[in-house]
What we know:
This protein is 29% helix and 19% strand. It has three helices and five strands. A five-stranded antiparallel sheet has the order 1-2-3-5-4, with helices on both faces.
Amino acid sequence: MADCVFCGIVAGSIPAFLVASTPAGVAFLDTRPVFKGHVLVVPRPHIVELTELPVADLPGYFGFVQRIAAAVPAALGCTGTFVAMNNIVSQSVPHLHTHVVPRTKGDGLRGFFWPRTKYASDEEATTFAETITKALGEE
């Protein structure tokens, strides 16, 4: 897509701090990192959200994300990574991207980036699970 910054990075017309490039996608540093070394991994085609990524592309794309998630601790000496993806909500660039954030115990990042909640009862949790199961068509 012509006005997509990530498509521009993939095409090479917009500069980025490139980490890796494969047929499955491109990995580059986030310019507003949670921690230094925060990498974004994007698929080459313009895809807005995960549900649009063709099933045939899943192994290549997530294999690439997995390689980046292994390389970040090896390169930076951090303990691990936080791997996350937003779909539509909080997606600052409307192009599928996976965050690979370096993590170290005591780094100040607490759990997820949003407040947590609880189910009122096991019955309520069961209802939510069943509702999602129905949407999958796997009753």
